[in-house]
Description:
Shape: globular
CATH superfamily: EF-hand
Number of strands: 2
Number of helices: 9
Largest sheet: 2 strands, antiparallel
Radius of gyration: 21 Å
Strand content: under 5%
CATH topology: Recoverin, domain 1
Bound molecules: calcium ion
Strand order of the largest sheet: 1-2
Amino acid sequence: MFRNRLNGKCQLIVMCCFVVLSSGCGEENSVAPKSHRQILAMMGAKGTEAASEQDIQQYKNIFGRMDADGDGRLTEEQYVKNSRHMNEMAMRKIFTAMDRNKDSIATEAEYVQNRIITDEAKSIYEQMDKNDDGKLTKDEFEVEEVFDEFDMNADGMLTVPEYLRVWGNWARE
Length: 173
Ligand SMILES: [Ca+2]
Ligand SMILES: [Ca+2]
Ligand SMILES: [Ca+2]
């Protein structure tokens, strides 16, 4: 293969590639466009592997408590009613994102998936927020080139809801 023939030469000049970051040996990796999932992975996302068996059991228990009649289905009203920490509008937005098949019901599987995605996203957000002010600037953001796609109101700051909305969409692609 062409690539194999080039290998020896690449090894010789690999130092140069590191220093000058010129196109050449590294080109085939840097040019390929990245999917949204790949970008999240660059930020440290592990997806479903982020949650332990224990986490998942805990999410299922919480779902069970919200699903008062035990039929394995949560309506939007049931979900919103259970909010303790967030306002109603935020809860409705989360429900919409959670309800993947858009049947206006959140199943246990949909709920668990949503918790895995958002809990992981929040912990990565906290790691990036170096000065702990609850906002992310471009400098703090792990993959600077996609910051503007997250910053929906273009004020140069990423709040948690803004970040979660984009993250949630990308993680479900
Ligand atoms: Ca559903
Ligand atoms: Ca910050
Ligand atoms: Ca913003």
